[in-house]
Automatic annotation (TrEMBL), chains A, B:
Highest rank taxon of the organism: Bacteria
Signal peptide coordinates: none
Pfam families, per database record: PadR (PF03551), Vir_act_alpha_C (PF10400)
InterPro entries, alphabetized: Tscrpt_reg_PadR_C (IPR018309), Tscrpt_reg_PadR_N (IPR005149), WH-like_DNA-bd_sf (IPR036388), WH_DNA-bd_sf (IPR036390)
Annotated Transcription regulator PadR C-terminal domain residues: 89-169
Record's protein name: PadR family transcriptional regulator
Coiled-coil boundaries: none
Domain Transcription regulator PadR N-terminal: start-end pairs: 8-77
Length: 170, 170
DNA sequence: CATTGCATGTAACGCGTTACATGATTAT
DNA sequence: ATAATCATGTAACGCGTTACATGCAATG
């Protein structure tokens, strides 16, 4: 039920079309909450039906510009403050760890080594993104940088864990 | 497509019924890959159709004991070594961060404070689990402890991030 | 004999992914 | 002209959740 709130959240910064939102997703939420175009268009339709957004303008090529309604803003705030974030995080990377006894110790170490590398690369990638979004004083940029810091810290922690884990296997 | 491999992985340690597997899930994989009873029974049926597991015994109350087949073991190993783990991790906790400008700074700090607390509690809970599974020399216990260490490190990192983030908001 | 535990399944619904389908407008 | 970009949608399929349905066997 969170794509709904992701869309509401982006619209809380100003009106936009589905197409605009899709681009916004790519540069902001994509690492936190990936969404596909199909999904987004469908969700905008449902949001409009529910009265949480309105179509405020229609442009060329059938463009529909959506704006959040007062009810939508209320719902967004309610979701932020009153709904407990889900705890369950599925990780197929970690799931494999449980079954490493089924492959040779060499391969198992190889697996963990590769995960350490991937996490390291991910951290570097995020450092790059940080350089790119350093300016930007709009809400999404300001809080996006806080979210980015999260990604960085988690990636580094994951890398260190994988390096540690690799050494545990003898 | 990972519940399939979770089931294969558990069966690689020995034959078990759906009911047994469900209990095993609860004490081992539940933090990494939650699964419901419906889902598991359905998946066992599909695995049997695909020849990756066999029904090796039928007991009282319609109990069916499943065992992994050589093909199943091959598939499990292929999945571990040849299939790249998914990178995308959705986090509705982090998604909310992007939209914190929509609530007051006090509330925003409150949100982050609460997340720090929750992560701290989660870390403590995992410390407790660690005390509980310290012995245990079977594969699942050995690798489960490595997975547990992951959860611990990530929880601590998350806690520290949330504490840091709270201070960023003025 | 009643409760608890063992044991398996079905049905409905929503979210997410992939692929497909269509067409208008702008820039070169 | 034609290619790139803008722009919206539909359809099929799979995974995951929740709720429901059923019944046997062991324990006290």
């Amino acid at each position: 039920m969170s794509l709904r709130h992701a869309a509401l959240g982006l619209l809380s910064e100003g009106p936009a079309s589905g197409y605009d939102l899709m681009k916004l997703f790519e540069v902001s939420l994509s690492n936190t909450w990936p969404a596909t175009q199909s999904q987004l268009y469908a969700e905008l339709g449902k949001l409009a039906d529910a009265g949480l957004v309105d179509v405020v303008a229609e442009g060329p090529r059938g463009r529909k510009e959506y704006a959040i309604t007062p009810e939508g803003l209320t719902e967004l705030r309610r979701w932020i403050t009153d709904v407990e974030p889900a705890r369950a995080t599925r990780s197929d990377m970690l799931l494999r760890v449980f079954f490493l006894a089924q492959i040779s110790p060499e391969r198992a170490r190889g697996y963990l080594h590769r995960q350490a590398e991937l996490s390291g690369k991910e951290a570097e990638r995020l450092e790059g993104v940080r350089g790119f979004v350093e300016s930007g004083t709009d809400n999404l940029s300001v809080y996006g940088r806080i979210a980015l810091e999260y990604g960085l810290r988690i990636s580094r922690a994951q890398q260190e864990w994988a390096e540690w884990a690799e050494e545990q296997i003898r």
